[in-house]
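Notebook entry, structure prediction.
Reason for the run: the old model in the group folder had no record of what sequence produced it. Starting over properly, with the input documented here first.
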Amino acid sequence: MEINISSRDLRAFLAVANSLSFSQAAQQVHLSQSALSTLILRLEEAFGSRLFDRTTRTVALTAAGEVLASQAEQLLSDMERTVTAVRDVTMVRRGRVALAALPSLAAHVIPPLFRVFGETYPDIKLSLIDTLSEPAFELVREGRVDFALTAANPAYTDLDYVPLTTDSFVLLAARGHPLGRKRTEIALTDTLSAPHISMSRHTSVRQYMEAAALQNGFAFHPAYEVDHLATIGAMVSEQLGVAALPSMAADVISGKNIMRRPLVSPVIRRSIGLVMRKEGSLSPAAEGMLALLRQQLQSFAVR
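New structure, fully documented this time:
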């Protein structure tokens, strides 16, 4: 049986139950006595039972009325907690934001983003999964994260991809390496005689390099394939080869012995954007995180 009862109805009922006077209760809930009587009658019809025994002089709770009175305070408390919880989410006072990001972005972009967001919304729980582009898309598809910050992947047509910025490739070489001694931009074809240290085949970085090589009539065959940027940095520093990386990924690699130069002929630009599910909407907390992320990425304009 479905019964439609509002918090206003329950408060009016409790006013009568506690005072055992329709006139006093009417004043408490700011209703006329006749309107209050009508409200109680509607409740009795909804429950199919009398809630009060009334005479010209007395008002008393029936057995059904006593049961409702014993539960009404808890019902009101539960309703108020629910309203507060919903408002906390709406006002970004409670909730959770989960996102996935490429390892280079997770190391370079996300930490300051989380710090600023946490200072503004200290009660929002944040979680990060640093992963490669394809797994990031899958995490969005499975609903395990609110959104992902990653490179474009046209294979995922069921998801929305919103470009936010672009990331130009640069060349990293040790200072003692012949390419490391150059002080100007370097053509990609001029680097092919040197061993290349590259990310593995399933990464977006490798895919962009192979596509650029193919479009310019040559194949890209790196001497070394690794999975971690720190390994690339160490190998470049030891003059085992050079590395072509997006600038945001190169930012993660530090070392006084490593030189960084713009890579041209061709200029390779990687699109960085937001991946979301097409259906549904982001929570207010996730929307707040996204707005802050857009602001932060303005400092990573095309380089």
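Summary: The two ends are 65 Å apart (CA to CA).
The old model has been moved to the deprecated folder.
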